[in-house]
Amino acid sequence: MGEAEIDIAAKSLRIQAHIITYGNAADDQLTKQIRDEIETLWNEPHGMAFLKNSDLHVQFYITAEYKPDLQELEVYQNINPRNNYFRIEEFVHGNISFVDGVGSNSGYFKLENLYKGSTTAAHEFGHTLGLDHPAIMDLRGQGTPGIMYPRGTLVDPHFQYDPLIQAGFTGGTMHPMHRKVQPQDIHNLRLHKLRFRNGRAVVGAFTNVYHWDHAGQPFIT
User: Fold this and answer.
1) How much is the mean pLDDT over the chain?
2) Are residues 48 and 142 in the same domain?
3) pTM higher than 0.85, yes or no?
4) Domain count, the chain
5) SS (H, E, C) the chain
6) Do 93 and 35 sit in the same domain of this protein?
7) Residue 70 and residue 15 share a domain
């Protein structure tokens, strides 16, 4: 989730978001790494949007803080569209990082998914902005996978975990490190459809879920 702000004079559309981490596996260094990954990857394609009869450069400004003492009431009562809350733990039910819906501002990250260059944080951030996984997950012959393709996507061999493995078998699917934010991903945000008031608009939606540590909790499907 984030807040979009138009600056006609600068011909820019700024999307600003603030990442707040908590949980037993969160710390300052990892939080900074998450911030850097999101901002770097989402600015990489130098996206454009057409609003107010102008072509605007889409620029992402991400800030972050590690908040070990975060209280659930603070999350539930949040009204700032820039705030995104992510619990980080070694264990997570389902064994995969997730956010609380397509268009959201809260989620739960598995530490193992957050190694440097993993693209997991940038992928999940895309979900918070309203992007879903693509319907077609066979990208063979189509080049670099976009940021919203999930694990299990079929890709050309050099984008696989192991380029020598037959497509679809263990090791023969997309390695997340190869995902990139593409101009199409920026287009898919449909920024021209946002409802602006005084030059600002909300991208995504409030979920404001405070997640408890999954360790020791029953897994409810």
Assistant:
1) 96
2) no
3) yes
4) 2
5) CEEEEEECCCCEEEEEEEEEEECCCCCHHHHHHHHHHHHHHHHCCCCEEEECCEEEEEEEEEEEEECCCCCHHHHHCCCCCCEEEEEEECCCCCCCCEECCCCCCEEEEEHHHHCCCCCHHHHHHHHHCCCCCCCCCECCCCCCCECCCCCCCECCHHHECCCCCCCCCCCCCECHHHCECCHHHHHHCCHHHCCCECCEEEECCCCCCCCCCCCCCCCCC
6) yes
7) yes
